Amino acid sequence: MKKLLTVTLLSAAVLAGTAQARDYDTVRFGVDVPYEPMEYRTPDGELTGFDIDLGNALCAEIGVECEWVVQGWDGIIPGLMSRKYDAIMSSMTINDDRRKQVLFSDPYFTPPSAWFVPGDSEIDDPSEETLTDKNIGVQRGTLQDNYASDMYGSVADINRYATADDMVLDMEAGRLDIVFLDFPVGKSTLLDSEDNDYKVIGEMITEPKEYFGDGFGIAFRKRDEDLAKKFNEALATLKENGTYDEIRQEYFEDNAK
Amino acid sequence: MEQLSAWFTQLLADNSIFTARTLGYYGEGLVTTVQLVFLSLVIGLVIAVPLSIARGSKRKWIKMPIFFYTYVFRGTPLLIQLYMIYYGVVFIDGIQESWLWIILEEPFYPALIAFTLNTVAYTTEIFHGAIKATSKGEIEAARAYGMSKSLMMRRIILPSAFRRALPAYGNEVIFMLHASAIASVVTIMDLTGAARLVYARFYAPFDAFLFVAALYLCLTFAILYLFRFLEKRMLVHLRPLN
Lengths: 257, 242
Known about the structure:
The complex is a heterodimer.
Chain A: H1 2-23, E1 26-31, E2 40-41, E3 47-48, H2 50-62, E4 65-70, H3 76-81, E5 87-88, H4 96-99, E6 103-104, E7 113-118, H5 128-131, E8 135-139, H6 143-152, E9 157-161, H7 164-173, E10 178-182, H8 183-191, E11 198-205, H9 209-212, E12 219-220, H10 225-241, H11 243-251
Parallel strand pairs in A: 1-4, 1-5, 8-9, 8-10
Antiparallel strand pairs in A: 2-3, 5-12, 6-12, 7-10, 7-11
Helix pairs in contact in A: 2-10, 2-11
Chain B: H1 2-13, H2 20-55, H3 60-75, H4 78-86, H5 100-105, H6 108-132, H7 136-144, H8 149-179, H9 191-202, H10 205-234
Helix pairs in contact in B: 2-6, 2-9, 3-6, 4-6, 6-8, 8-10, 9-10
């Protein structure tokens, strides 16, 4: 009898648990900081950036609370799977490899990637010839890493960093000849830095799609289709009523689409 | 048994992670790790022997700096030492123009320097302890034969101290192998760096890290075996008869 009671109680608890999980009073977002201007900390330690502001606006639109969980990039998808948070909003590009693991929202932003070099660099256009024996910096496990490794891994040295910060530091130190980054991030960390001794070379890169995918999306666990749908609707609303453009204006003066 | 092999074939059939390319990453990583650890241990051993003798000197101005050095390097995490040597030195003005930069520019050498300094500190203390534990009788006997200090050091104290230090030094070698896993934070593609890359690319933590753990186990086994062999040969006089 006692056993039966325990089982009933336990299953009730489990049911209540799942019911709560589906309703999502609070949505926890995994985010990898710093990745300026998409997500970074203000000097007093507050999280801010385009993703954070847009995420908060989306949550307000849906009527749930947002919580932000800081998580290193290379463990960000496993963290979602192990329920450390319910969604990832961290400049994650939608591509087929990731689609196997997670469910993506509609794209909310599509930045190009770009090559950055020191101002006095002799490299004027990235190609196999100009990059031979050069040190290329990328953040480990990003699509820029995959692209650079596949295109130039056989001729150049690919240096993979855990964070974008370490990479910028090594660029300033002179250990890297060239880095490959999301353009908005490179712009605010390198071009807009105090010394501003860097330049972009070559074209903005958005092709081929197998690497660069369809822009940034919010990633959910595959079973959370309802939640993804809510966020898609909210995103459409924010784009219509101008809130999206306002947030965008705040972080990007140019109109990178 | 049949079930097991069927399970194994199936496991390999839908394996998209361990392709020739990722195995290549692991292969390169293995070479880098072995290089780093082997070089730092050899250089470390060469430096540590004279230091451990000097560490036992009666003169304070010889003894104290070496004690201070081993204290600092044993008292701080290796990761911090590596960060200081790789990222920290960059902030010294003018270092990019000096000859030192040729060494510090590549991540391999800062890591090698950090590992060597660290292992020298530990090895010095291990040998120092072994030298100090030389039995009085051996030293008195050597003196009775009229040996000079250096001859006594060479013929009596060091050989017996090395034998005594062997098991402890074997541990230090294994610790060094495991400590080398942090080399990947300064962009070196060692074994752990390869595992992290595979992890980040395929989002498969278990596969990537289990495989690399198996590789580390093999390396550790080789080291264990080597030291077992050395101990058997060199400590043969301590074994009971039959």
